[in-house]
Specification:
13% strand, five-stranded parallel beta sheet, alpha/beta, single chain
């Protein structure tokens, strides 16, 4: 069973480098440009959440899916505080090593695609995570670097 993947996109990045847009182009995510169109269910990946995503959250992800947020880090605090009011379950990620060319090796500086793939790995959706990351040259390296998330 695959989890529903939704991304709230604010178009604040270079569209050529935007991993959320690439996932949408490959029909791997359902992207939303507004809080109004985003269904208020599922787990939102929130770097400010005190609760870390774990296998205990699998039932939530099965029902409501995983929501990623594609926004500028400069506006992240404001954006994520608005999401908490929507009824989404916020979860942060454990230490994850990015493989993207911009922030490779800088723990926690993930692209939207890397954050979602991390959540899928934690929730035992390895095949879906691998498929998601296969659309990036550096995607397989990301899966290999973070294989410990599956355990």
């Amino acid at each position: 069973m695959s989890f529903s993947i939704r991304i709230l996109c604010f178009d604040q990045d270079d569209p050529k480098k935007c991993t959320a847009k690439r996932l949408e182009r490959f029909n791997l995510s359902d992207n939303h440009s507004s809080f109004k169109t985003l269904p208020p269910m599922g787990i939102v990946l929130d770097p400010f959440s005190e609760k870390v995503l774990s296998t205990d959250d699998i039932p939530l992800a099965e029902v409501g899916g995983i929501v990623g947020v594609d926004c500028s880090w400069n506006k992240a605090t404001e954006t994520f505080s608005r999401l908490r009011l929507m009824g989404l379950e916020p979860r942060s990620l454990p230490s994850v090593v990015p493989a993207n060319p911009v922030n490779s090796g800088k723990i926690g500086k993930l692209t939207t695609a890397e954050a979602i793939a991390s959540a899928l790995l934690i929730c035992n959706q390895t095949e879906q995570a691998e498929h998601l990351m296969s659309v990036f040259k550096w995607g397989p390296a990301f899966i290999k670097l973070n294989s410990s998330l599956r355990e």
